[in-house]
Amino acid sequence: MTHDVSPARFARDPHGGLQPSAGWFALPFADASFQGIPGHAYTALDRRDRWQRYGFALDVLWPGVANGKYHRETYADESFVVIDGDVDAVVEGGVVEMTAGDMLHCPAGTAHILAGAGDAPAIVAMLGTRGADPPGAEWGAYIPEPAAAPYGATVAERTSDARVAYADRPDYAPVACPRAWGCGGGGRPGIRQPVGTARFAARTDGRLTRTSEGWFALSVDRMAWLDNGRTCKVRTDGDAAFTQYGVNVRTLRPGWPSSMYHREFDDDETMVVLDGDCLAVVEGREIPLEAGTILHLPAGTAHVTVGAGDAPCAVLMIGSRRAIDTPRWGEYVPDVAAARRGAAVTDATPDPLVAYAGEPPFAPSAPLWTFRDP
Questions:
Q1: Which CATH number fits the domain 32-175, given the four candidates 2.60.120.10, 3.20.20.140, 3.30.300.30, 3.10.129.10?
Q2: Gap between the Cα atoms of 252 and 235, Å rounded
Q3: What pTM value is reported for the model?
Q4: Please, what's the b/e burial string for 51-82 (b: 16 or more CB within 10 A of its CB; e: otherwise)?
Q5: Where are the domains positioned within the chain?
Q6: How big is the CA angle at 331 (ends 330 and 333), to the nearest 5 degrees?
């Protein structure tokens, strides 16, 4: 059985933005297709007929404008990472002030909405599960919330009907890319101590790892990073693992791969190069990636990323978790291009102990790269 996945083809929207078909793709932020209204725009790349495991977008939020209506989902989790600028999050009736590098995780049942803050448009990575709702079940609801009213993000009465909730908003339509790529800007100090209902424990170096379920907001820079001399990474879910998807940030040293060349059989991955340069090997092809590039890898796509340039490269990585920790998660496979980068096995294997034999172990560390200056 073959698992080869073809690259996407692209169509242009009225503003020249590129909309991918099914398949893997690498696409710079500036070249992506956007949908928008005054004050809010998002990358329109993840059509539901093609991305079925999760929804993903890079949102641009102007100060005082929300990305939707205050709501809670019954079955699906949602997570947000502020990449550039300042954001206000209304969560369970309170306002959380966020900035670049802060992450908000809202498990199913958490009422929330995000809005731009500060004095310039912010960029936010947004991730939400698809397919979590049982057939015929109500997805969730838009609910009244006074704290969301200043952002135009509340409803008068509870409703699960989007047409009712958004009756006061214009329809989204194609727009040009609304701003240049940026990472790490913002006028706030960042969330240095956890906010929310999840509990965290401190390592001996003071860095924080999540130990319980619940919603939280916290700077990624403050989380528990690990380093093996090649890659420095943080798993944002800590000891209490996310079940619907994974979110992590990896910092790649020049010339070193993020992993061994592999494919997942039933799980998608999406990456965003936050800062620096790297090289992706996808289905045997070498593709240079620069800051702001989105790399989408549907299930079955063989891939690896390798640090490039003369400085560390930071990459936001997300992926679904349908088959994680099962014998059918996927496989590590040989590849000539990946082997030139020291990132391929000689013989195919599903066993990470075989694929990473001889690799130095990961140990607690400070981050090699941070969103904000320490």
A1: 2.60.120.10
A2: 15
A3: 0.96
A4: bebbbbbbbbbbbebbbbbbbbbebbbbbbbb
A5: 32-175, 224-365
A6: 145
Give me the count of residues in the chain: 374
What does the pLDDT look like over 279-336, one tens digit per residue? 999 999 999 999 999 999 999 999 999 999 999 999 999 998 877 777 789 999 999 9
Per-residue pLDDT tens digits for 97-142: 999 999 999 999 999 999 999 999 999 999 998 878 888 899 999 9
